[in-house]
Amino acid sequence: MRGVHICNFSLPLKTNMTKIKKAVIAVAGSGTRLLPATKAMPKEMLPIVDKPIIQLVVEELVEAGIEDIIFVTRWDKKPLEDHFDHSVALEDDLRKNGKTEAADRISKIAEMANFVHVRQKGPYGNGTPVLSAASLVDDEPFIFCFGDDLVKSKTSFTKQMVEDYEKTGNLIMGVQEVKQADVVRYGIVKLKEGTNQMEDIIEKPSIEEAPSRLAGFGRYILNQEIIDILRSTSLGKGNELWITDAIKEYIRRGGVFLAKEIKDGQWLTTGDPANYLKSILAYASDREDLKETLAEFIQSQK
């Protein structure tokens, strides 16, 4: 990472910690920047080559040992819910036509984890999905994800976070350096000197007030204390309920919150046409069956 260096930092090992087995994924967004593609299709179901965005997120979680996945949805997310259920008619049809491998691949989607769907209630903001799922993660640590944020890495980034949590017992947020001009779009982190411990986080600061170029993205390890803080957190910037405001309060109370860089990978947001296209190209370029054709096509366009 250019310009910023995060030193390895950890507190003493904490024993007898609850294993992280649950994840909450926020998928109640409308995807307006990708209209008209998202008019009748959840943005999280848009394909990255031949898998929907949300399936890649789920696969990352499952690789980390997550067993229960809670989708915080809204009224128009039924295609997403159906994707993680068995499609008996399709599976039977594939098998009848000798496409056993395809049938097995489709069937396994529903078996990856236990899937729960709850409707989002409350004010607008990225803290609301946490409260909507609070009763299902009561008094235990959990992963919180944004359903349109991908992390393409050799080892599941969630697994990297869980391994750090098991060493330290501290809450964690994924971070990646962004361009100076882009700090106004994200929660920007200030670290304690020489550590990866967060001193502060500012939601969508101006370029002048940004303490760094380290942006937090949609991967967190949270706990009951964050939920309790969110319940009493006032609406913040833009009259929204921000997870960053709860993190700030947690730190103010003496809690340790760590910033985690991705090892051997990168964060890819998919919320707008340009970044969605970049994500497709990044995944397609890694596919043995596609990369040569893709490279040839790109070269032919120059």
Can you describe what's shown?
This protein is α/β, with parallel strands linked by helices and 302 residues long. It has one domain: Spore Coat Polysaccharide Biosynthesis Protein SpsA, Chain A. It has 10 helices and 13 strands. The strands form 4 sheets. A 7-stranded mixed beta sheet has the order 5-4-1-6-11-8-12, with helices on both faces. The protein has a two-stranded antiparallel ribbon with strand order 2-3. α3 packs antiparallel against α4 and α7 crosses α8. The chain starts with 21 loop residues before the first strand and ends with a helix. The relative contact order is 0.17. The N terminus is likely disordered.
- The shape is globular
Strand composition percent: 15-25%
- Structural class call reads alpha/beta
Main pleated-sheet profile: 7 strands, mixed
Q: What is the CATH superfamily classification?
A: Spore Coat Polysaccharide Biosynthesis Protein SpsA, Chain A
User: Within the largest sheet, what's the order of strands?
Assistant: 5-4-1-6-11-8-12
Instruction: State the helical fraction.
Output: 25-40%
What is the β-strand count? Answer: 13
Question: What do we call the CATH topology?
Answer: Spore Coat Polysaccharide Biosynthesis Protein SpsA, Chain A
User: Which CATH first-tier class would you pick?
Assistant: Alpha Beta
In angstroms, what separates the terminal alpha carbons?
Answer: 29 Å
Give Rg in angstroms: 20 Å
Oligomer: single chain
Structurally, the number of domains stands at 1
Mean pLDDT comes to 91
**Number of H- or I-type helical stretches:** 10
Could you give the order of the helices and strands? EEEHEHHHEHEEHEEEEHHEEHH
- The unreliable regions are 1-15
CATH architecture: Alpha-Beta Complex
